[in-house]
UniProtKB/TrEMBL annotation:
Belongs to the enoyl-CoA hydratase/isomerase family. Its EC number is 4.2.1.17. One of its GO terms (biological process) is fatty acid beta-oxidation. Keywords: Isomerase, Lipid metabolism, Lyase. This is enoyl-CoA hydratase. It comes from Mumia zhuanghuii. One of its GO terms (molecular function) is isomerase activity. PROSITE patterns: ENOYL_COA_HYDRATASE (PS00166). It comes from the Bacteria. It catalyses: a 4-saturated-(3S)-3-hydroxyacyl-CoA = a (3E)-enoyl-CoA + H2O; a (3S)-3-hydroxyacyl-CoA = a (2E)-enoyl-CoA + H2O.
């Protein structure tokens, strides 16, 4: 249990909860605790899916500027690697993940949200990459993940201007996936995550691996990745149980054990 980040598990769903008042500024300690929670969520068999949540008022307003302002190039080069490592740990959780975004998700907050598979946002949320206004660029994946989500032109516009993107535009361009009233965002994210409790966890892991790895390579290589992951699942008990249940009882009635 960290001071600023904790993993809360209930009914098969893990919530990675950011809790650093007032704005969940992403400093070094928070980054370290975030990576630890991501590793715990990855390892725990009782966690089928993960929600990343900053609380009712704000997701995360960005990096801790006071902590970074006087760093040298050499110091920031080391710290930047640690920052990306923490965020990559969230992206690498081999289970379905969703961000529940309230208030602001700016800078590092937006970058963290982009590390999850889906993003549910409050209808009054604000997202953006305002680093250019500080004389820097996004350093936790923004220049890479944002273009992959919304396309290079829209991503460059958001990063060039440093402007805030309101929830309606974020939905329109694909930066977020669903909008809800602020008071129900977290509950909706939990409901989405709960559908994977008891699901075919190895197949879910395979879908995420094949999709994420495939996006980084050409189509032919991606198809090879898919073929290997697809074939590997035929060595699992879940595949046997799922197909046997389909033959005997019809679709959607199999019991899976993650083996």
């Amino acid at each position: 249990m960290g001071e600023f980040v904790r993993l809360e598990v209930a009914d098969g769903v893990g919530t990675i909860r950011l809790d650093r008042p007032k704005m969940n500024a992403i400093g070094l300690q928070l980054q370290t605790e975030l990576a630890e929670c991501a590793a715990e969520a990855t390892e725990r068999a009782d966690v089928a899916a993960v929600v990343v949540y900053g609380g009712e008022r704000v997701f995360a307003a960005g990096a801790d500027i006071k902590e970074m302002s006087d760093l040298t190039y050499r110091e920031m080069n080391v710290r930047g690697q640690a920052l990306q490592t923490a965020f990559n740990a969230v992206a690498a959780i081999p289970k379905p993940t969703v961000s529940a975004i309230t208030g602001y998700a700016l800078g590092g907050g937006c970058e963290l949200a982009m590390c999850t598979d889906l993003r549910f946002a409050a209808d009054n949320a604000k997202l953006g990459q305002p680093e250019v206004l500080l004389g820097i660029i996004p350093g936790a994946g923004g220049t890479q993940r944002l273009p992959r989500l919304v396309g290079p032109a829209k991503a460059k516009d958001i990063m060039f201007t440093g402007r805030m993107v309101d929830a309606a535009e974020a939905l329109e361009i694909g930066l977020v996936d669903r909008l809800f009233p602020a008071e129900s965002v977290y509950d909706e994210a939990l409901a989405w995550a709960r559908q994977f409790v008891g699901a075919a966890s190895l197949a879910l892991r395979g879908i995420k691996e094949a999709t994420d790895r495939g996006l980084e390579v050409d189509l032919a290589t991606g198809l090879e990745i898919e073929r290997h992951v697809f074939s590997a699942l035929f060595a699992t008990e879940d595949q046997k149980a799922g197909m046997r249940s389909f033959i005997e009882n019809g679709p959607g009635k199999a019991t899976f054990e993650g083996k």
